[in-house]
Amino acid sequence: MSIGTITRPLIAIVLLIGLALPALGQDQHEVTLIAKLAFEQIAQREAEAAAKLEAEHQARLEEQSRLKQVYQTYLGSSRRTAQTLIADKRRKASQEQVDALRRQARIIIDEVQDATKQRIPKELDPVFEKLEKMIAVTPEEMFDANPQLTKMHKELGRGNDLGWVDQAAILYALAPTKEEAEVVASNVKFREQVSDDEAQAIDEANRRRMILGLNPLAIDMKLVECSRDHSSDMIKHGFFAHDSPVPGKATPWDRAKNFGTNASGENIAAGYKDGMVVTIGWWRSPGHLKNMMGKGHNRIAVGQEQKHYTQMFGR
To answer: Taking the C-alpha atoms of 216, 194, 140 and 75 in order, what is their torsion angle to the nearest 10 degrees?
Structure first.
């Protein structure tokens, strides 16, 4: 093989390489441009997503502000209506008869035992219903008395739970003293920190207490957390009792202390669908009834986990 024969293929290879180098450089430039464009598109999408999240957050804040105003407006109107109706009922009612019915209810509550629990539906409920009609008011009575309130309820209640507002208005109107009205008002402030069922159970317990002439109980959020914890433990560890097998949580008093507060009583329940039904369940059980209508309590809490409820009291 001659030198010329070898040189010609080498020259061809060099020429091919020389032609390929600019092409490679051009491809690299295009890759860089495409990558830059991709990064810009990603950054733009991330910016758009962040802007969307911020807009949604702002919309939620505005909606919360609007709802707060809705509730305040409606609460003011419903409270005035409830106060007017209850004041009118109290003027017509005989205070002596009210006092006599309350004493009768108290005797039944103090005397009833598990063996005689039928006294509750047979004797206590009729007395309580008489008192309700004489000195309390229902949302339906409020709507009948104030057509404007009915209109507001229909307009503002779409998608909003205004039932608790009606209950708060009734509790406020039931309060005979400024101090008790302040307890009711302070409980409204905790509405966003408790579930609907927890609030319902607390409100219904207080409504029944006030109709019987007892003081309303203030929500203790530390006890609420303690109550939730016990309800959760009962599900998690498979027991149903006031005495807990969980170390450091043996008794209600231990559990309350763990949460930085103290307790004077505890009710538990399981299998109830909501706060109203569980309260009626406690009302129909002598021991739970005595706890819920106890004279020495000043604070209350209900902690819900699924269908388990723990109700606690404090002095």
So the answer is: 80
Query: What is the C-alpha separation between 164 and 71, in angstroms, rounded?
Result: 10
**H/E run at residue 305:** strand 299-305
Alpha-carbon separation of residue 110 from 63, 68, 206, 214, 217 (angstroms): 48, 42, 18, 14, 20
Of 25-39, 59-73, 253-267, highest mean pLDDT: 253-267
Residue 6 CB contacts under 8 Å (≥ 6 apart), including other chains? none
CB 171 within 8 A of CB 245: no
Which residue type does 6 have? I
Each residue of 45-84: pLDDT tens digit? 888 888 888 888 888 888 778 767 777 778 788 889 999 9
Sequence-distant contacts of 101-105: CB under 8 A, at least 24 apart = 101/127, 101/130, 101/131, 101/134, 102/131, 102/212, 102/213, 105/131, 105/212
pTM: 0.78
Give the tokens for residue 70.
Answer: 């809705």
Percent of all residues in the chain with a pLDDT value above 90, rounded to a whole number: 64
Query: Could you tell me if 311 and 264 are in contact, meaning their C-beta atoms sit under 8 angstroms apart?
Result: no
Question: Taking 70 as the threshold, does the pLDDT of residue 21 lie above it?
Answer: no
Query: H-type helices in the chain, by residue range?
Result: 3-92, 95-111, 119, 125-135, 139-145, 147-156, 163-174, 178-189, 196-211, 221-237, 252-258, 275-283, 286-292
At residue 22, the pLDDT reads 53
CA angle 69, 70, 73 (to 5 degrees): 80
Q: Rounded distance, CA 170 to CA 184, Å? A: 10
| Mean pLDDT value of segment 272-284 | 96
- Compute the distance between CA of residue 43 and CA of residue 189 in angstroms, rounded to an integer: 43
Asked if 139 and 166 count as a contact pair (C-beta separation under 8 A), the reply is: yes
Whether the Cβ atoms of residue 304 and residue 234 lie closer than 8 Å to each other: no
